[in-house]
C-alpha cells in the first residue's frame, strides 16, 4: 500500500496555487460534485530531513583570519574546498570565519534534532501543528574590522515523506520515497558596529542575512515555504518554516548588496544580534487541500442557506 502511494505521489511548488484554487472553484460550480471520489485523506506521514551547506565564499583577505567549513560527521575542516554537491553525510554543518590566533570566531550552522546527526526522522499529522526538526544558528561575535568574513553561502534541505493510515513509531522513509529539495542562497553582511544600524536592529549593530526565496514558493503572509503534493488523488500542502525568516527593511537589502525582485516590496531574510548566539527553530508540517467535490458541496450548502434566508 505504501509503495503504491509513493509511486503516484508528485510534488511541485505552490506558485500557481492561487490560480489552481480559482480553477478548482470554477470547475466545482460548473460541474458540481459528480467527479470520481479520491481515496481517503491520509492522516499521518513519516518524514526524514537532511540539510547542509554546499557552497560558501568569503570576503576580504588577511593572513591572520580565515573562513572554513566543518563536516559534522567526520569533523573535517575544509579551508579550500568551498563548493560540493549535496550529500548530507559529507556537507558542511558549520561555516566559521574570523581570527586564527585563538580569539573568538563567528559561525553559522544547521543542527537537526539534538545536533548530533545529519538527518532527523519524525511524524506529521495532517492539519496538525508544525513539528520541530532542529535549528539554524549564527554565533555572532565581534570581529576585527580588517579580517575575512562570510559573503555568500548555499543551504540545501532535502525532505522525504511517506503517508500512513495510523499513528505509530516513525520509520525513516527510503531515498525512493516522495522527495523535495529546497535550496536557499544566502547573502551575508557583517555590519560595522558604529551605531549606524539597519532598521530593526536590536544591538549595535545586527548583521544581515538575505535569503533568496524566489524559486521556493515562500508565502510572505505566513512565513512558510510551501509545496503542493498530490497523493492518491488528493492534494496536500507541505510547509517548511524557519523561525524569524521574513521581510527586511529596504536598507538591510541594500546593506547586503541585494537587488529587490521586481514587483516585490522588499527582500526576505534575518537580522542577527551582535555579540550573541542567534538560534532560529526549523519545523515542518502538512495540511490537506479541499477537493473540488468538497468545494462544490460547500457552495451548494451556502446557496441553499441563502435561499432559505430569502424565503
Task: Report on this structure.
- The chain is of the alpha+beta class and 311 residues long.
- The chain has one domain (2-310).
- Helix content is 15%, strand content 43%.
- The chain is built from four helices and 17 strands.
- The protein has helices at residues 2-8, 17-31, 250-255, 292-310; strands at 10-13, 44-59, 65-71, 77-78, 92-99, 106-112, 119-125, 131-140, 149-164, 178-189, 207-212, 218-219, 224-231, 234-242, 246-247, 268-272, 276-289.
- Strands 1, 3, 4, 5, 6, 8, 12, 13, 14 and 17 form a ten-stranded antiparallel sheet that branches. A seven-stranded antiparallel sheet has the order 7-2-9-10-11-16-15.
- A hairpin with a 4-residue loop joins strand 12 and strand 13.
- Helix 2 packs across helix 4.
- The longest helix is centred in the last third of the chain and has 19 residues, at 292-310.
- The protein is globular, with a radius of gyration of 23 Å.
Amino acid at each position: 500500500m505504501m509503495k503504491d502511494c509513493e509511486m503516484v505521489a508528485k510534488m511541485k511548488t505552490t506558485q500557481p496555487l492561487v490560480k489552481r484554487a480559482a480553477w478548482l472553484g470554477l470547475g466545482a460550480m460548473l460541474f458540481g460534485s459528480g467527479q470520481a471520489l479520491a481515496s481517503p485523506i491520509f492522516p499521518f506521514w513519516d518524514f526524514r530531513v537532511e540539510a547542509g551547506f554546499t557552497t560558501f565564499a568569503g570576503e576580504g583577505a588577511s593572513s591572520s583570519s580565515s573562513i572554513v567549513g566543518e563536516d559534522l560527521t567526520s569533523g573535517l575542516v575544509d579551508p579550500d574546498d568551498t563548493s560540493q554537491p549535496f550529500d548530507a553525510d559529507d556537507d558542511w554543518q558549520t561555516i566559521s570565519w574570523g581570527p586564527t590566533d585563538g580569539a573568538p570566531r563567528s559561525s553559522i550552522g544547521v543542527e537537526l534534532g539534538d545536533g548530533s546527526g545529519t538527518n532527523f526522522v519524525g511524524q506529521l499529522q495532517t492539519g496538525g501543528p508544525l513539528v520541530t526538526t532542529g535549528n539554524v544558528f549564527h554565533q555572532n561575535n565581534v570581529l576585527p574590522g580588517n579580517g575575512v568574513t562570510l559573503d555568500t553561502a548555499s543551504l540545501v534541505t532535502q525532505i522525504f515523506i511517506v503517508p500512513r493510515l495510523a499513528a505509530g513509531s516513525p520509520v525513516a522513509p527510503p531515498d525512493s520515497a516522495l522527495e523535495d529539495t529546497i535550496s536557499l542562497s544566502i547573502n551575508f553582511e557583517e555590519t560595522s558596529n558604529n551605531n549606524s544600524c539597519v532598521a530593526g536592529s536590536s544591538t549595535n549593530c545586527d548583521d544581515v542575512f538575505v535569503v533568496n526565496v524566489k524559486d521556493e514558493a515562500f508565502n510572505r503572509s505566513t512565513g512558510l515555504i510551501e509545496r503542493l503534493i498530490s497523493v492518491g488523488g488528493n492534494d496536500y500542502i507541505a510547509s517548511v518554516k524557519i523561525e524569524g525568516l521574513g521581510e527586511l527593511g529596504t536598507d538591510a537589502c541594500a546593506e547586503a548588496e541585494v537587488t529587490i525582485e521586481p514587483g516585490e516590496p522588499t527582500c526576505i531574510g534575518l537580522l542577527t544580534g551582535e555579540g550573541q548566539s542567534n538560534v532560529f527553530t526549523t519545523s515542518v508540517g502538512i495540511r490537506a487541500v479541499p477537493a473540488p467535490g468538497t468545494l462544490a458541496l460547500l457552495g451548494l450548502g451556502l446557496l441553499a442557506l441563502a435561499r432559505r434566508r430569502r424565503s
